[in-house]
Amino acid sequence: MSNNWKDTDESHLDTHLHELMRLSRKAALKRPSAANANGAMGANAASPQAYPEGQLHTRQFSLASYASLRQREDKPSSWQEVKPGHRWMSAKQYLPRTGDKVPVFPILKRGSFPEKVNAVADWLKTAGPVTDPWGMKVNFDHPQKQGTQPTDIKNRAAHLLGENMNKDVEDRTERPDKIAWFGAVRKTIQDAQVRTVAKSGEVYYFRNYVDGIHMVVVDDGEVKDQANIITQYAPQSFDNKNKRYQDTRIEFSRDATATNPAR
């Protein structure tokens, strides 16, 4: 791994762990209990937000998805042979290039890092969700508690645009390649060639552009088939030998040239 890449496993997973703890506490407050079942009024009855039938808490849904994808022992020899359960590392080399150029995100062409964070934070709040080719919606308005920015949504924006120089502190600084590839985030999800799931519960989207493979990381939301943006990586930003990807399993894949109309 190059010496200038400091957005390490530890820094990313520490931040993600805090996010999981926060979501778990939040979900526990929302989950219906016997006390307020069948119309009974419990302690949180002032703002009931029970899960609809069949919808699970994010960790249960994510981990169940990973466990249900039994890892295949065979290795594909072409993209056409890629199946659910194949390891991403065994299939990545066959992901066909689409010929797409990275979409430009004009508001990031100039300005200081704080100005870019502010602009992306405003965009996250108003962008609205995007639907992937397999029907899962991804929300962009997803605040992040950890960070040094003045608001939680700006912490998320900084995560999308920056790197951590100190793995012990969530304090992002500008990373030019992440800024250059931010314009591809929506398209990589909407027109993903492949969706993978990790043991951590994260979901990864990949699309192969002219300049390389772009990766977007999301986390399952509090209801099934809804997810929240976590971060994104330019081709230069993730090491293919990184241990975080070793056990990542393919959930869905499709033809390289297919596109998913906006929904």
In short, what is this structure?
The chain contains 7 helices and 9 strands; from the N terminus they run ααααββαββααβββββ. The protein is α+β, with helices and mostly antiparallel strands and about 260 residues long.
What's the arrangement of secondary structure elements?
Elements: H1 9-30, H2 58-68, H3 88-91, H4 113-126, E1 130-131, E2 137-139, H5 152-161, E3 162-164, E4 172-174, H6 176-181, H7 185-190, E5 194-197, E6 202-209, E7 212-220, E8 226-233, E9 249-253
Parallel strand pairs: 2-8
Antiparallel strand pairs: 1-2, 3-4, 5-6, 5-9, 6-7, 7-8
Helix pairs in contact: 4-5
Number of helices: 7
Order of helices and strands: HHHHEEHEEHHEEEEE
Q: How much β-strand is present in the residues? A: 15-25%
Oligomer: single chain
Report the radius of gyration as a whole number of Å. 19 Å
Which overall shape is indicated by the principal axes computed on the Cα atoms?
Answer: globular
Helix content: 25-40%
Unreliable segments of 5+ consecutive residues? 1-6, 23-61
Instruction: Report the sheet with the most strands, covering strand number, pairing sense and barrel closure.
Output: 7 strands, mixed
Overview of the structural elements:
- With 263 residues, the chain is of the alpha+beta class.
- The protein has one domain.
- It is 28% helix and 17% strand.
- The protein is built from seven helices and nine strands, in the order ααααββαββααβββββ.
- The protein has helices at 9-30, 58-68, 88-91, 113-126, 152-161, 176-181, 185-190; strands spanning 130-131, 137-139, 162-164, 172-174, 194-197, 202-209, 212-220, 226-233, 249-253.
- It has a seven-stranded mixed beta sheet. A two-stranded antiparallel ribbon has the order 3-4.
- Helix 4 crosses helix 5.
- The longest helix is centred in the N-terminal third of the chain and has 22 residues, at 9-30.
- The model is unreliable at 1-6 and 23-61 (pLDDT under 50).
